[in-house]
């Protein structure tokens, strides 16, 4: 009996130490004691740091390229957006239209999804590439490009029904610029919106 009480006290002490240290529950070291405004920043194209402020404004681009008009932002989940991520990541979508002398009011989206870590963001970007290649085979091309000081991935298809997009990671975030209908908004147009984000 005495031995049982000692074991019980030892277990209670171990759980108390673990609970106090934050090892139980949903806390991870990267999020402990921080809020969205404490997120690190990376250099913008001008050489100055632009902080990542994770809210709907992250997908609102203020200095839009010619032909673009901002319409709205929405909270979205990644698995329903047709970008090659089947897991459910919370994020935001900026909704833009593009018009020039040959097209009118075509939809272009700019997304930001938050992951748990930089490694998770990199894995999801790799999953996007694999999904695109598996889905579109020889009609789709996946290639590396540089964008706003980051390595990015360019997704372009010869199939008119497959939208072009560009994606990159920054810290634990994934950014994606994508046209809704391929063939009518070319990759360079989508890329110009991504560059204007300065993220």
Description:
- The chain folds into 2 domains: 1-31, no CATH class; 36-196, Protein Transport Mog1p, Chain A (3-Layer(aba) Sandwich).
- The chain is 25% helix and 32% strand.
- The protein is built from 3 helices and 9 strands; from the N terminus they run αβββββαββββα.
- The protein is elongated, with a radius of gyration of 21 Å.
- Mean pLDDT is 80; it is low at 16-49.
What would a concise description of this structure say?
With about 200 residues, the chain is α+β, with helices and mostly antiparallel strands.
List the helices and strands and how they pair.
Layout: H1 2-21, E1 41-43, E2 49-51, E3 68-77, E4 90-98, E5 106-114, H2 118-136, E6 140-147, E7 150-157, E8 165-170, E9 173-179, H3 187-196
Antiparallel strand pairs: 1-2, 3-4, 4-5, 5-9, 6-7, 7-8, 8-9
